[in-house]
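> example.struct
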């Protein structure tokens, strides 16, 4: 039996229900094989690259469910940082936002666009983006990010980027599964000039194991 492929990756396909809505998703099937890929090893040696984008992480599910139930939009501009396979971007588009999905890996954007197509939504666009670089474009009313605080060095650059890109009166939602590396994010966001509210959340995703995490709501 032939293995299904997309963008030169063998893929896994699952259907999930989040907040009462069905999502049909694909992502690379074998993370171990991806880690052993010579291209991954070469990029890691050059820039400490890891293909974290290739898994729909638990706090992405947490944030997708929160947006669908608590943060519906009326066509406002939104952006997702570190979109990975695009679950949060697809959920935000379902919730009425005009979403640009971004990641620093171009392959992630292919999966995000395909998952949007498969779920009947249109993204405003996709773009390679590195939040370590200054932002000088038009502001966004909603900024979304999940599982991006896995290293302490990400905390301050992310907070500064959000402050530069967030519209007056806008909201940023950053979801994390209570990693110790995220402990300084609230302070960094405050130093950047943002107000911070920490929302403790829990959610039982489709595979049945309870997920606990924190959503940082920034204004």
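> example.seq
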């Amino acid at each position: 039996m032939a293995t299904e492929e997309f963008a030169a990756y063998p893929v896994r396909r699952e259907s999930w229900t989040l907040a009462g809505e069905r999502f049909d998703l694909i992502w690379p099937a074998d993370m171990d094989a991806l880690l052993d890929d010579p291209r991954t090893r070469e990029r890691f040696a050059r820039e400490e690259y890891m293909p974290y984008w290739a898994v729909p992480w638990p706090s992405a599910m947490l944030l997708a469910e929160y947006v669908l139930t608590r943060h519906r939009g009326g066509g406002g501009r939104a952006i997702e940082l570190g979109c990975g396979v695009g679950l949060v971007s697809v959920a935000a588009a379902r919730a009425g936002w005009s979403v640009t999905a971004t990641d620093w890996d171009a392959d992630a954007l292919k999966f995000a666009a395909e998952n949007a197509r498969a779920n009947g939504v249109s993204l405003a666009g996709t773009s390679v983006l590195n939040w370590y670089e200054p932002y000088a474009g038009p502001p966004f009313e909603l900024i979304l990010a999940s599982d991006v605080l896995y290293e302490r060095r990400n905390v301050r650059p992310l907070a500064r980027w959000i402050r530069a890109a967030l519209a007056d009166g806008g909201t940023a939602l950053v979801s994390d599964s209570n990693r110790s590396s995220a402990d300084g994010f609230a302070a960094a966001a405050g130093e950047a000039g943002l107000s911070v509210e920490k929302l403790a959340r829990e959610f039982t995703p489709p595979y049945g194991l309870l997920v606990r995490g924190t959503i940082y709501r920034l204004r």
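> remarks
Residues 32 and 51 are 10 Å apart (CA to CA).
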